[in-house]
Every structure is written in C-alpha cells, then in structure tokens.
Amino acid sequence: MTEKLIFAQTFEGLLRSLTGKLTPRLATGLRERGFDPGAPLLPAYPQAVFIEVVSFLSRELYPGLDSEAAVCAVGRSFMDGYGETMVGRAMMAMMRLIGPRRTLERVSRQFRTGNNFSETKLTPIGATEYHLWVNEVRLPGWYIGLLSRGLELAGGQDVKVEVIQCDQAGGHFRVRWTV
C-alpha cells in the first residue's frame, strides 16, 4: 500500500493562512508535530502529520469553538491562504469562472492536487444540492470548511455543508447553496 501523502502546496496554503498569526509558540507546536514553518517545504508530508497540524492549529487558533467548528475555521482560512499559492491562484480563477456547480463536479481532481489518495463520489440531488462522499475523512470539519469557503469563492451564496455520516469508509456530506 502506498503511503498517504499531503503535498507541499497544501502545507504552503496552511502557512499562508497563518500570516500575522504565527507566534513562536505556534511555530514550536508545528515543529513538534512534524512541520517546520521556517524550513523549506518538503515535497510531501505523511497524512498523520497533516492531521496533527490541523488539529493543533484548530485548538490554538480557535479555543472558544468546539473541535469540529474550529477545524472548519482552519479549513476556511486555508482556502484563503491556498488562493495565494501558485497552484491555488490558478484554481481560484477557474472556480470563479465556472461557478459552484462545476467546481463541485471537479472536486475529486481538486482534492488530488493536495494529496495522493483522495477519492470522491458526487450525486446530484437538485440544481444546487449534492451528496458528496469522500474517502479518508479524519477531520470532517476540514471538509466542511474547504467546501463551504470554496463554493463561496466560486460564487455560491448561503452555502451549507453538513455531515451526514462519517465512518471508516469515508465521509458523506450534504452540500447546497443558492445562486
């Protein structure tokens, strides 16, 4: 089995989302979890490092929120940081051009720019409502944050992403918006 890896541009997006927030305490905590924000980015990091880093950031940056809401906030902030990367700028421009529906239809390809293992299945329920299955969902709030902020950036209004179920096989989400 191939090791599950998160690519450098995902960590670059996380790092850019920390602009103005990266305290010495935060930097130390990230290094302790396998990501040195002061070192050149590695080509990829193990999935376990990513999960530890996102969990740590959610606790440190959003202590007043419950764990899922805090992870969601990190995911939303990540989307803005990712939009400042070379890969992210191109992706965001495309998303604004094609809109929320077609952005969601390309979510599997978009997730695969960040890792080597994502798989998705998208089922339309209505014109602006979908059921999305994603494998390897360890932090459901991350996907809520990514999807909600991403669809907003693509032009969706009143975006709602809800967890239907998460288990060993993956996560099931209900995604909807207005235009």
As a percent range, the share of strand residues is 15-25%
Count of individual beta strands: 6
- Overall 3D form: globular
Integer count of domains? 2
Q: Note poorly predicted spans.
A: none
What class would the helix/strand composition place it in? alpha+beta
- Supply the CATH architecture of the largest domain: Alpha-Beta Complex
Q: Major sheet, described briefly?
A: 4 strands, antiparallel
CATH third-level topology of the largest domain: H-NOX domain
Tell me, what is the CATH class of the largest domain? Alpha Beta
Percent range of helical residues = 40-55%
What would your notes on this structure say?
The chain has 179 residues and is of the alpha+beta class. The chain folds into 2 domains: 5-82, no CATH class; 99-178, Alpha-Beta Complex (H-NOX domain), CATH 3.90.1520.10. Helices cover 50% and strands 22% of the residues. The strands form 2 sheets. Strands 3-4-6-5 form a 4-stranded antiparallel β-sheet, covered by helices on one side. The longest helix has 20 residues, at 86-105.
SSE blueprint:
Blueprint: E1 5-7, H1 8-17, H2 24-32, E2 44-46, H3 47-61, H4 67-82, H5 86-105, H6 107-112, E3 120-126, E4 129-134, H7 140-153, E5 157-167, E6 170-178
Antiparallel strand pairs: 1-2, 3-4, 4-6, 5-6
Helix pairs in contact: 1-4, 3-4, 4-7, 5-7
